[in-house]
């Protein structure tokens, strides 16, 4: 398997996801190591010259005016990690933590943080050996970086904290020993450099964006199957509609729906059954398209952040400048990850309305709750309840975190982003979206069985058949929970991606 080379430049969402989720190996770029060495020489020179430099020869935050004696600078870095490891709550998943390590290594590899290459090499070793720090998920305010989560991460590098290795949770020193690694001994500035950054919110943002990108196509596929079995009117998706409202996302979804519904024996013309469809069918391109455009913008911002130096202070070796600034502030991610939560909530919201139309006999013309033995059987009645519950829950999670700020560090850090909360919420909403789309696919497949799947369009029949490879037709009542779980998991699997490719989907969020 080829290595992902970390240089501080060009790292993509897909590469980060592969490192975090699929254990792709990583390595430090040689030129990046030289750039890091150059900024490190600045730190050494400033120490020799006894300059006052924040975090190098001074304390942190409110203590930035306190000069630290030369013989205490190593202790300063260790104390920083220990004191800032104040996280609480359920630990992040190993996937999130692996993403954090990859992103922190990439940020340091840019060469503006004044750390030795060995610091990044230690992060690389942890990734390649799969030593995963245990990091509580709560406690970051998203400015000065993700201080608490990154401090828990950094403790393991020096043989403290806790880590998971080969399925066991161990003290950091024991995990390193079993992996054949030696604890890192920090020098001046290096503890600060390890925790000043946006990598907790960034890692969650990567996972949420990557999964939402795949679900964007499944939303179109599920909608097409629903429109087909509900005998919708494809004229609403005519290219002329998008020409007079030229949003690229709308045009793309209209194209998807035209392609997916082509050849259906179920879809209708205006006036054949009804003059026009309900909004949840007719405005699918407008809603899905706007969500796609929003996701494209979010992905651009997240990608920029993956390749950013988010430390403080920053050291510019070519200009011999050290600058205390604010690249650690999570506002760019906080705003777009709040936006991502809204985008995913809207996909789920319109999906649930299509589910309701399928299970409601007054709206669908199909048997109530998609069972032929109503009364004795309840069919998919409660599956729609589950979708409604998740959509309602999303409305709570979609409330923005970025509008809030609570000053910290004795009012030195008097505006913070709360971006890590934005990231946690967006990841939750994307997970809920996956379940709602799975329920829509199950309802569409069940409706197709009641109508006759041979009447479907060739493409929507392929969607139906894919669902039926995993879940049999609902003849007698059974628990829908397992069915929902298996379809939800399959959507973002390799076979699921293959189905999207065969349908002409899976080409990205926006095709211009």
From TrEMBL:
Which Gene3D superfamilies does UniProt cross-reference here? Fumarase/aspartase (Central domain), Fumarase/aspartase (N-terminal domain)
* Keywords from the UniProt entry: Cytoplasm, Histidine metabolism, Lyase
Where is this chain's protein located in or outside the cell?
Answer: Cytoplasm
Zinc-finger among the record's keywords? no
Pathway(s) where this gene product acts: Amino-acid degradation; L-histidine degradation into L-glutamate; N-formimidoyl-L-glutamate from L-histidine: step 1/3
| EC number of this enzyme | 4.3.1.3
As for PTM, the annotation reads: Contains an active site 4-methylidene-imidazol-5-one (MIO), which is formed autocatalytically by cyclization and dehydration of residues Ala-Ser-Gly.
Span of the signal peptide: none
Q: Where is this cross-link: 5-imidazolinone (Ala-Gly)?
A: 143-145
Top-level enzyme category: lyase
Which reaction(s) does its UniProt entry say it catalyses? Answer: L-histidine = trans-urocanate + NH4(+)
Q: Does the keyword Nucleus apply?
A: no
Instruction: Check the record and name the InterPro entries matching this protein.
Output: Aromatic_Lyase (IPR001106), Fumarase/histidase_N (IPR024083), HutH (IPR005921), L-Aspartase-like (IPR008948), Phe/His_NH3-lyase_AS (IPR022313)
- Sequence positions bearing 2,3-didehydroalanine (Ser): 144
Q: Which family does it belong to?
A: Belongs to the PAL/histidase family.
What name is this protein filed under?
Answer: Histidine ammonia-lyase
Annotated source species: Sulfobacillus thermotolerans
